Amino acid sequence: MATTSSGVSRTQTRRGNSCKNILNKIRQGQIKGVGLTRGSQFPVALLEERDKRAQWQGIPVLLRRLHESSHPNSDLSKIHSTVMDLSSLLSMEAMSFVTEERKTPQESISPNTYTFDLFGGVDLFVEILMRPTLTVQGELPILSDDLIKDCLSVLYNCCICTEGVTKSLAAREDFVTFLFSLMSNKKVFLQTATLIEDILSVRKEIIQLEVIPNLASLVQSFNQQQLANFCRILSVTISEPDVDVDDKHTLLARSTQQKTSTCPSRAETNQVTLVNIPGFIERLCKLATRKVTEAADASARLELEDWHSWLDNALVVDALMQLAIEEAEQSSTESSDESSLSSRLLRHRLPQSMKIVHEIMYKVEVLYVLCVLLMGRQRNQVHRMLAEFRLIPGLNNLFDKLIWRRQASGHVLHRQNQNCDCSPEISFKIQFLRLLQSFSDHHENKYLLLSGQELNELSDIYLNANVFEMEALNNTDRNLVCDGKKGLLTRLISVMKKEPIDSSFRFWQARAVESFLRGTPSYADQVFLLRRGLLEHILYCIIDSGCKSHDVLQSYFDLLGELMKFNIDAFKRFNKYVNTDEKFQMFLTQINSSLVDSNMLVRCIVLSLDRFESQTNDVKVVEVFSECRLLSYMAQVENRLSFLFRLTSIVNVQTLTQENVSCLNTSLVVLMLARRRDKLPLYLSALREKEYAEKYPGCLLNNFHNLLRFWQHHYLNKDKDSTCLENSSCIPFTYWKETVSVLLASGRSSRCAIASYIDEAYRDLDRDFLEL
């Protein structure tokens, strides 16, 4: 009895393992490159015998049949039915994967797709698609558009459901290049673009656009809809890869990386390639500014947030738009069963509702590409083009009806390179604000954000103040500014003041307005914004609103600093709003709660104080100086020293980033102004006393010494950064360099050298900061 039982068990085990043996042989063949690598190499009888037991759904047999029917000299029109059979087996798994929002592909969840890939389906479909390019002799095989569509859809479904497929396709340069050429076929454009976007997003290296054959003619052949969708693909090719490890974001790591790579990155090269395509920027401007015709009956328009749960990109919207059009064109004689609620929604409500979603999604992609190009090496060239093609006036005309047609609900703040899963409307607003920030930042074209009437107002401010007009304002082409009475800047301030206090839109709004003020301080620009109640609104948000967001508060501190810098009228307004000790203490509490966030405002106050102290002949300045709580507070040396202690201790060379390097520069400003007044030894002595009082002698000054050495390494090779420092502080960069050199002097006899204030036992100045 035991023998019989054992024999049955062994037989069942052999039969159960036979299917696994086939899979193992295929796996080993694919890994080693020898032996059996595809299911088509197994006899049909064997595959059919094992199929039911393994529940392969006939996929290996179908693939074998497809392989035999798709050799180089075969008629590919006869394989379409087999391709459709395979497609139907895979499409439901892909739909389930997407609708259930699964994050990671799993074999148990998508067995059909897994089987398809294991038996060589992915490679076979790639071969079929590329057959016309691989045939050397004889007539080229003809693939119908429908066959190409189905093949592309199958490959995309595999990318969604089976781990590793997307990466394996991305590694095939020939296939990726072939897909770009396939985009010239309008009938298969959507399917091709969807697959390319998925493939490029997982590539380790960014593809080089310049190696794509006939790229310029390909882009020029796109209609506006295709060009907008193509921007989704371009966004992957022109953006630097996002780095997940925080250490890579430090200035030290970036400096080390730049040493090893002096050539432009692929992203930068791709940006140049695109900018040089004739008509490319002009067409993007037209896409960004074209209007949307809205239905008269507002009730027929679905709100954009309603689509968020099931529309994830513009390519899907394109497909649904086409479906809606086809549904609407069907005969009205179809049965009542077919006229379901969903189909009626498509025919009667979807097209108009989706027209708005459609256009907004397009504009998100287009604005992103323009924003990246504005921040690239071709910035000035792109700026000229955007001005010439009237991007800003066009966006101004869309502001009320589309861009900010209503206040949006709250959402999570996303940084510049973060993936965003926001609704289309929220993404659109954020991208719009990013574009304004990039457009205005340190560029004379910022005055295009104003209307002709507002430019006249700026000129009057200069005239009444008896101040020379900024050259950039005088050079602004009034044919390229915003139409009407209000420009984009004024409209932006209006919606910012109405924004819910906890809305993270405030962060991007403040950044966009601040960028208009960056650079050499302009009295007229500041007064223009002061007249619109901006300072009072910022102070309300900081002091009275209860705002808790560090990001929003930081953006307001930075904006307030630019708004008040060297402007005595702004300090007068500040004192009028902060008119009690309680309010002033609340303001100081907010500043001290995070000096990394508020240090730019501290720098502004210190710089302004220094200038006002030298204007003792100006009655207005003397009057405000005597009354202003903020100036009186900063005028006390002990308060400036308190800020200096903290600024020099909250960062070190290893933690310096683009976000907190301003703390180092603010501490330098404090010491430069002290040096001007021959008080640098006093400040250095105070730092030494602070070290001993806190019982860590040498720690503060050694750290500051290392920071200044890195400052030299970082800034002396950065023309843009050094120019920004000079313009924003109105201190010549030569004085910045001189002060750092004086502080780093090696002689113990110098009373202005850091080394003179560190006892020998605690000195640690010679270590290479790159090895720290």
Automatic annotation (TrEMBL):
Database matches in InterPro entries: ARM-like, ARM-type_fold, TRPC4AP
GO biological process: ubiquitin-dependent protein catabolic process
Pfam families: DUF3689
Name this protein carries in UniProt: Short transient receptor potential channel 4-associated protein-like
One CC-aspect GO term: Cul4A-RING E3 ubiquitin ligase complex
A molecular function GO annotation: phosphatase binding
Gene3D superfamilies reported in the protein's UniProt record: Leucine-rich Repeat Variant (1.25.10.10)
